[in-house]
Amino acid sequence: MKKQLTALLLATTVTISVGAFTAEQALAASNATIVSGVNFRKAPNTDSTTYGLLKTGEKVDILDKVNNYWYKVRDDQGRVGYISTSSKYVRTDGSGGSSSNSGGSSNGGSTSKPGTGNSSEIINKVIAAGKKYMGTPYEFASDRSNTRTFDCSDFTRQAFKEGAGITLPSDSRGQASYVKSLGGTTTNWRNLKPGDLMFFMDYKGTKASAYPSNKSNQRISHVGIYLGDGKILHTFSKASGGVRIDSIAGKHWEHRFVFGGSALK
């Protein structure tokens, strides 16, 4: 009887241990490989500080898919952080991570829960969020903590935060760098899709001749959201009446345009 009891206790202990191990390892069930250097951030947003760069060939464990744009991962040093979900940076060797995402971002990140559905549905939400603020007064260097006034980048940041659940960098140049890092940009505004961000150089006049033919090295000073049909949703001055919609073709906006692209890849 004593031998049977000992065997039973031993079997129970092994079963419990195996169960605990399985639960502990469940989140790390999907391995991934870094295919291009990517920032290893401490929170799931582009304003977060980083541990540094994860290099090509490094392996990480995907612990969670926070939203469409961020994986929560653990590197080979045991550090837990966040990387882009873009296939440009990471190749998943398993299921792509769990997708609990029941409470938005983790670890105090400022990225909120993203809009659900396909990209066109998310874009519609971004545009709707932006249009909700039509007429909101312009203020240079507006307070990012409220929506009483906007400058151009504060406005686009708010629209994407509400509509897509992502927090873009706070200024137009930071947003331009972020979009460029995702790839797929264009210097021809007619190739843009609704919801793409448009980036512009400084105003130099209404004539095309006032602007250089090669704008690649020009400083970004303005950003807006492309609506399609040659329209842009943005804000740029107090005199203009705040958030508004403008036509692009034949206007200084066309001449000032540097590049544009999606912030959702």
Short description:
The chain is an alpha+beta fold and 265 residues long. It has 5 helices and 12 strands. The longest helix has 25 residues, at 2-26.
In words, what does this structure look like?
- The protein is α+β, with helices and mostly antiparallel strands.
- 25% of the residues lie in helices and 22% in strands.
- It is built from five helices and twelve strands.
- Helix 2 (119-131) crosses helix 3.
- The radius of gyration is 23 Å and the shape is globular.
- The protein starts with a helix and ends with a strand.
- The relative contact order is 0.12.
- Residues 1-29 and 94-117 have low confidence and may be disordered.
Mean pLDDT: 81
For the largest beta-sheet, the strand count, sense and barrel status come to: 5 strands, antiparallel
Q: Termini, distance in Å?
A: 65 Å
What's the number of extended β-strand segments? Answer: 12
**Please, how many helices?**
5
Helix content: 25-40%
| Helical/strand content category | alpha+beta
- Please indicate the percent range of residues in DSSP E strands (runs of 2 or more): 15-25%
Strand order of the largest sheet: 6-5-4-1-7
What's the quaternary structure here?
single chain
User: Could you give the order of the helices and strands?
Assistant: HEEEEEEEHHHEEEEHE
Shape: globular
Low-confidence stretches: 1-29, 94-117
The rounded Rg comes to 23 Å
